Amino acid sequence: MESQNIRPGHLTxxxxxxxxxxxxxxVRKLVQRGxxxxxxxxxxxxxxxxxxxxxxxxxxxxxxxx
Length: 66
Fold this sequence. Notes:
Elements: E1 10-12, H1 13-20, H2 24-32, E2 38-41, E3 46-49, H3 50-61
Antiparallel strand pairs: 1-3, 2-3
């Protein structure tokens, strides 16, 4: 169960996955690759900054030039 006391401006791992259209394992992989940084919570229930998730979402939505 996720924490109900999340700080404003942060998303849970589940919310982050939903925003990015990926699974929780995908979120973990982004963290391992250094593309997303935890900004609070606990090791089992991390939080991510809304602005970081939005920036990552924008870069993922941008088509790459060939």
